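hey team, just a heads up i'm posting the complex here instead of the shared drive bc the drive is being weird again. everything in one block, sequence lines first with there labels, then the predicted structure for the whole assembly after. its two chains so it's a bit long, scroll down
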Amino acid sequence: MSQLYIYNTLTRKKELFTPLNPPFVGLYVCGPTVYGHAHIGHARPAITFDLLFRYLRHLDYKVRYVRNITDVGHLENDADSGDDKIGKKARLEQIEPMEVAQYYADSYHHDMELLNVLKPSIEPHASGHILEQQEMVSKILEKGFAYISNGSVYFDVAKYNKQHHYGKLSGRILDDLLTTTRELDGQEEKHNPFDFALWKKADPEHIMRWNSPWGEGFPGWHLECSTMSMKYLGEIFDIHGGGMDLLFPHHECEIAQSKIATGHDTVRYWIHNNLITINGQKMGKSLGNSILLSEIFSGNHPLLEQAYHPMTIRFFILQAHYRSTLDFSNEALQASEKGLNRLLKTVAQLDALPVSEQSTIDVTSWVKNCYDALNDDLNTPVMIAHLFDMARLINLVKESRESINAADLDILKRQMHLFLEDILGIKMEQAESGESELLPKVIQLVLDIRQEAKKNRNFELSDQIRNQLGGIGITVKDRKEGADWEIE
Amino acid sequence: MSQLYIYNTLTRKKELFTPLNPPFVGLYVCGPTVYGHAHIGHARPAITFDLLFRYLRHLDYKVRYVRNITDVGHLENDADSGDDKIGKKARLEQIEPMEVAQYYADSYHHDMELLNVLKPSIEPHASGHILEQQEMVSKILEKGFAYISNGSVYFDVAKYNKQHHYGKLSGRILDDLLTTTRELDGQEEKHNPFDFALWKKADPEHIMRWNSPWGEGFPGWHLECSTMSMKYLGEIFDIHGGGMDLLFPHHECEIAQSKIATGHDTVRYWIHNNLITINGQKMGKSLGNSILLSEIFSGNHPLLEQAYHPMTIRFFILQAHYRSTLDFSNEALQASEKGLNRLLKTVAQLDALPVSEQSTIDVTSWVKNCYDALNDDLNTPVMIAHLFDMARLINLVKESRESINAADLDILKRQMHLFLEDILGIKMEQAESGESELLPKVIQLVLDIRQEAKKNRNFELSDQIRNQLGGIGITVKDRKEGADWEIE
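-- predicted structure starts here --
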């Protein structure tokens, strides 16, 4: 059952997954940039690689899952706050980038917890690895594949491309790229428009800065992932994941700089999840269709017809294959919500299912089919279709049109929970919400019935109700103005 | 109301709190060392400074609260894994200190959330500020108050003490200390037993290490707090807090090294919470009486008679003044639990309180008394006594033995919630637990009554029950074998 085939973006085919150093697996995934709340686009990589993490652990691998926090941002003071003003301003009055980063990282963690995304083994911060990043810059400079220009250090892509293929992950050719690219801002420092910064000189208005051998500045964005993945997983590690939007240039740059720093490739399997569209359109702040996860959970957004439970979102994402685009719409979400509720309702009734001598249901094949789907590049839509098939059969058993024996029912129960809860990560008790607000209402309803019974001098019923409530831990206290209650 | 007096350990008296740079307040508190789960001793500083954070914000200060994570630990590989073996071992097979640190930091955060301790504004990691710590070591070396010895850098306490008073915070005199101290391990590198490491050379078995101008090593423990507090709060900041166990030598060392690095004192108010004893004894792992927070919440510890709700623990800690020792015992906790439940129950009935034309209760004085207690060095036991007094009066109003008018009731409700929830941080809806398991039982009870009514051909009642359940969102479905229900 543990023959997991996974699509490797680098080779463009599904490959049998074999860790470098079993039973250990090293998994690195590009995490969020914490200068804003998480939107629906953040949910997809988080859930995709959470599924992979969960499934690898289910297959008894010892997984070290590293997902970074990009907190070396580009926050600046107001344009008119020159060098001098900053110097005079008290530290506490300034925006503190780390305070902003902490706020959004906390918000991200909160959303991930609601989505039942497991915490990674290590969540390193880019700002916490400045020394390591500087050491990697020095190595690349020593090897002659970077140059210093006006206090910044750039990677020399053209020189790299003479010996290696810059673009091998995304299937690009540097010469083609060069002929179709316009000059961008700040290019005058670079020898070549595709060169990228390993270390950036900090302008006076940059408030996040560190000393370095090249002057005060901050590390280039691509550098952090190379540095931190190797620090925690070793110079060669199993899996590097991320969204397809990071494929180029971020991951190409990672490949190039790591190759020069170490002399070899560092990543064995590159895995990318596809993107989310909204009502068929690309998502973007400028398009006005970017929806925060908190807005989805509350329903508070003009594009939303209702609030959606985090488990609906999770199920919706898993109902598509991670390499397919996924279109986000009210219709699609409502369909997922309905389907998940139907599925959970059926599963909740498994304990009460009548047992027969013989099974007409082939549970063993069903289990195999589910694993086959997972092993086929994490094909969750097919796997979930098998879960729905089984739900249909379970309902037929209830109607005595199919039957199941005790041994099969045991397997079914165990595997259904493994598939739904452990691997897909659906939190079953959370899927129905708002229960705690209901309790006082139902208790009041009971007390009203009792009050009515007393009025009708039906003291037998009224005493029975008090005793039964007492039996489940709710004490009733009769007062002049009616009955009061208390949980023991 | 905002005349907060707070006890400054440095001056040994209560002082009027006036921020350096109002409305901003900088608050630094020594956080946990994340190489073990949090125990009851961790709850006290967390809740004490959470109270201070909440109250300062209530007083409309803009507080930047920095609480560090000490993750530069002393984890070592097995003694027999010498340099060579480590080099050959794959990265993934080694213990990764950051994975251990992440695990325990996550556990700490989970416990703090249960205790309703607010997240600090910034939670910097010691391992994330190596560069800054190295820069501070260099400064102290340049000023001539540190020396390099066998790859480590030590602070020269004797030299410092000739110009300044080493021990001024804890009231110690260096000469007295020296005559009563035995030689300890590793002292041969030091000029003086009280010299402390700013940078420690890493032994071969140390797996957490960074390059530095003095060789591979790691920063001394005292250094991180000085570095990170100044980085995020400025070279002079308002409040430095921590447990009394950190007063000496940790905070003394902070004072000394910061004074040399900056030329002045950096902290304006030093605040220390007192310690927790268990059944009258000092707490300690070796004494076998160290209780984890998770054990308290589950009741799973030989010293515990029951589980205690996190809000009981919080209330228990706030019922003592933060500068008093606090003895942890089942009797004391049970008393807190009872008291809190009584208080919350009364507060929950405020909405239903009968209103009169006149008040016999002096709500204005009560509000003032509560603030006076808080302003008197955060005297929460006195403040909580006022809350109990008011609860007693509220119960008398219910019995028509006291009265309250509408305006006073409004003030009372608002202030009671502010005091209990916003300032003391008691999460009211959480204080009563286990409710979600009760709901299905109560619904079943209602359906049983309805079944009985149907049996007695009392269809009026049975329909009424179905309609009332429907009205609060619970659909009843009649089946052959009885009724089923569903939350809409």
